[in-house]
From TrEMBL:
It holds the Pfam family TauE. The chain crosses the membrane at residues 6-29, 69-89, 101-119, 140-170, 202-220, 232-250. Signal peptide: none annotated. Keywords: Cell membrane, Membrane, Transmembrane, Transmembrane helix, Transport. It comes from Spirosoma endophyticum. This is Probable membrane transporter protein.
Length: 254
């Protein structure tokens, strides 16, 4: 594998980390890039090789947000544990059953999310509702299991779904939702990373340089999101959702 190939993948990974740290969706850039650049390798190995960069970016994003945004620690830690277990189960399930039905299902949800966010101007602009501690616990833990399994089983759009869930179900604004989403996404990425490593499906010569690039992009993206605030993140959220919709729609018509 020549250096130009690795540098190209690192460029895509840098951009993926940047976008993912702001609102999620970095996999829409990083995954197609490695699939098209290294078509000679099996798809599971290529997908496994993107998990280490994704994990690095998630950890950097989580660290940056945690320094500036208060998190609900007593609930987020159990949520991360549940998401970790659910993601591992999702990855295991993926190796045994097809996941083709997920794209149409996710496409419908994403279209509804896009329309709702576009028309509701104040969505995610401020903490919008009071949710009791008991309801926060139930909703966050349910999200951890459901979205964690989705991430391990299918993946694209996980970060955006987490942000949406924290806003719609918990009442967070975009900035606080992004901070919590990165913590949970780090847990799901860790589970998938360990799973693919245990299966021997990682190209370390590609994964490690991409991890450095993704981490760097995540640092810049998180800092920019913190600096610009909720309105900026909302615009990014709509762009990522729109891109995800187009990607899924394109895949379905092929």
């Amino acid at each position: 594998m020549d250096y130009s190939t690795i540098l190209t993948l690192c460029g895509f990974s840098l951009l993926a980390g940047f976008i993912d740290a702001i609102i999620g969706g970095g996999g829409l850039i990083q995954t197609p890039a490695i699939l098209f650049t290294l078509p000679q390798y099996p798809v599971p190995t290529l997908l496994g090789s993107t998990k280490i960069p994704s994990l690095s970016g998630s950890l950097m994003g989580a660290f940056q947000y945690s320094r500036h945004v208060a998190v609900v620690g007593k609930f987020i830690a159990p949520m991360m544990v549940m998401a970790f277990g659910a993601s591992w189960l999702g990855s295991w399930t993926l190796t045994r059953v097809p996941n083709s039905f997920m794209k149409p299902f996710a496409l419908v949800i994403l279209i509804a999310v896009f329309i709702y966010t576009l028309t509701k101007k104040d969505f995610g602009q401020a903490t919008s509702q009071y949710v009791s501690a008991r309801q926060q616990r139930i909703r966050m833990w349910t999200m951890g299991v459901g979205i964690g399994f989705y991430d391990g089983f299918f993946g694209p759009g996980t970060g955006s779904f987490l942000v949406l869930g924290f806003i719609a179900l918990i009442g967070f604004d975009f900035l606080k939702a992004s901070a919590h989403a990165k913590l949970v996404n780090a847990a799901t990425n860790l589970a998938s990373t360990l799973f693919f490593i245990s299966e021997g499906k990682v190209l370390y010569a590609v994964a490690f340089p991409m991890a450095v690039a993704n981490l760097s992009g995540a640092f810049l993206g998180a800092r920019l999101a913190i600096l610009k605030g909720n309105r900026f993140i909302r615009v990014f959220f709509l762009l990522v959702i729109a891109t995800t919709i187009l990607r899924f729609a394109w895949d379905l018509v092929q």
